[in-house]
Structure formats: C-alpha cells, structure tokens
C-alpha cells in the first residue's frame, strides 16, 4: 500500500465492496464522502443545539439573580446573617423532569456514537491516500461548517 497521496481513479474505501475503478466511480465516491462529511458537521451542530436547548429548558434557581446583575457587594450582603434573616424563605424549585433529562441524554449519547463512528470512517477514507477523496472530505467539511454553524450562532 502506498503511503503517499496519489491522483489515481482506483481505490478501495472502507470495505471490499467499495472498490472504485474509473473516473465515474471516483466522482460518485467523492460525492458520497462529501455528503458524509457534511452530515458529520451537521451532527456536531445538532449536538451543540441539543445541549444549549436543554440548558435553557432547565429552571433557574430562585435564590440567585443572573450573574450579569450580581455584584460582589450584593453577594456579600446576601451572605450576611442580618440580610438573610430579612428575606422570606422560598421553597426550592421543583425537581426537573428526570425522564426528559434521561431521554435527552440517551439521544445525545446516540448522536455522539454516530458522530465518532462517522469521524473515524472519514479518517480511514483520508488514509486511503487518494487526493480526490481527501479533497472531498475537506470540501465537505468546509461546506458543512458554512451551512450549519451560522444556524447555532444566530439563535
């Protein structure tokens, strides 16, 4: 096996049945690898979006104001005995829905497993040392990043 990049249109990718011979097969294989890479980038964004949405859905504590409004002097006053005795005692917030949390965790775990598996498969495609396949992975990564990451940043 060659350990340098080449421009050949013949390569075996991942499995014995994915044996490419000729330009048409190479174009199709590069397109499939490109789509898999775009899907990999979308999975990363989906996991980030799920993580952010689950944090936003969690109830905020009734005891502490948001960090942007809290100053050191406010924190010192709240911890002093005289200030805390003036504030009425509030019951703790209700426990979060544990079934929803476990379901979300299971979904994120499955997505992580899919993302890691797909990432290693793409790495093995690049390790075929075929320049066309390598370019398909790079262009797919750029395209997937370009399409998906602005959706997370602007929300």
TrEMBL record:
The annotated topology with respect to the bilayer is: Multi-pass membrane protein
- Quote one Gene Ontology molecular function term: copper ion transmembrane transporter activity
UniProt keywords (A-Z) are: Copper, Copper transport, Ion transport, Membrane, Transmembrane, Transmembrane helix, Transport
User: Which InterPro entries would you find in this protein's record?
Assistant: Cop_transporter (IPR007274)
Q: List GO terms (cellular component aspect).
A: late endosome membrane
Q: Could you list the residue ranges that cross the membrane?
A: 20-43, 129-153
| A matching Pfam family | Ctr
Name where it's found.
Late endosome membrane; Membrane
Q: Where is this region: Disordered?
A: 55-95
Recorded superkingdom:
Eukaryota
Composition bias of kind Low complexity appears in 73-88
Q: Which PANTHER family match?
A: PROTEIN SLC31A2, SOLUTE CARRIER FAMILY 31 COPPER TRANSPORTERS
Tell me which family the UniProt entry assigns to this protein: Belongs to the copper transporter (Ctr) (TC 1.A.56) family. SLC31A subfamily.
Q: Per its record, how is this protein called by name?
A: Copper transport protein
Q: State the organism of origin.
A: Gymnodraco acuticeps (Antarctic dragonfish)
The gene name reads slc31a2
């Amino acid at each position: 096996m060659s350990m340098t990049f080449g421009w050949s249109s013949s390569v075996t990718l991942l499995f014995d049945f994915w044996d490419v011979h000729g330009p048409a097969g190479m174009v199709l294989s590069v397109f499939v690898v490109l789509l898999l890479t775009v899907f990999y980038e979308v999975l990363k964004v989906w996991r980030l979006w799920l993580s952010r949405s689950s944090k936003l859905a969690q109830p905020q504590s009734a005891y502490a104001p948001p960090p942007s409004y809290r100053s050191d002097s406010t924190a010192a006053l709240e911890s002093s005995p005289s200030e805390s005795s003036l504030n009425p005692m509030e019951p703790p917030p209700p426990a979060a829905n544990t079934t929803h949390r476990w379901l979300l965790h299971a979904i994120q775990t499955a997505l992580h497993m899919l993302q890691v598996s797909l990432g290693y498969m793409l790495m093995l495609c690049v390790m075929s040392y075929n320049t066309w396949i390598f370019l398909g992975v790079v262009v797919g990564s750029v395209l997937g990043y370009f399409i998906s990451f602005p959706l997370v940043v602007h929300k």
